[in-house]
Amino acid sequence: MIPIIFIVVVLSAIAGSLGQLFFKMYINQMDNLRLSHILFNWKILSGLFCYMGYFLFLIYAYAIGGKLSVVFPLTSLSYAITPMLGWFILQERFGWFVPVGVTFILAGCVFLA
Predict the structure, then answer these.
(1) Do residues 19 and 51 make contact, with C-beta atoms less than 8 angstroms apart?
(2) By CB atoms within 10 Å of each CB, which of 28, 47, 80, 105 scores lowest?
(3) pTM above 0.70?
């Protein structure tokens, strides 16, 4: 795989993971679920902005020659990044199975690249 495509896909995965982080941060502090609170909350808007970045990076990866059969499966890197964000930023705890699963995801990405 062309290295720039890999970098763009990693940026896409990071953006998607950050989007999930912002959504979870909103839910953690939410006191009631009203549409007006959701539409104008900075955490929700930040999450949506990150998701827009996810899609733009993904489209760019395809535009510069990335193959669908490689680029889209590599976005599964977000499944490896998201638990780390949960652990570092939200202080979430998990058992031994999460690092094992992340290792399998990373190994699969290595085989695809």
Answers:
(1) yes
(2) 28
(3) yes
Q: Which of 14, 105, 112 is nearest to 72 (CA)?
A: 112
If one counts every other C-beta atom within 10 angstroms of the C-beta of residue 29, the result is 8
Indicate the pLDDT class of residue 2, thresholds 50, 70 and 90: low
- 3-state SS of the chain is CCHHHHHHHHHHHHHHHHHHHHHHHHHHHCCCCCHHHHHCCHHHHHHHHHHHHHHHHHHHHHHCCCCHHHHHHHCCHHHHHHHHHHHHCCCCCCCCHHHHHHHHHHHHHHHHC
| Spatial CA neighbour of 5 closest among 64, 46, 55, 85 | 64
Task: Report yes or no: 64 and 8 within 8 Å, Cβ to Cβ.
Answer: yes
For residue 30, give the amino acid letter. M
Nearest Cα neighbor of 80 from 59, 94, 61, 64 is 94
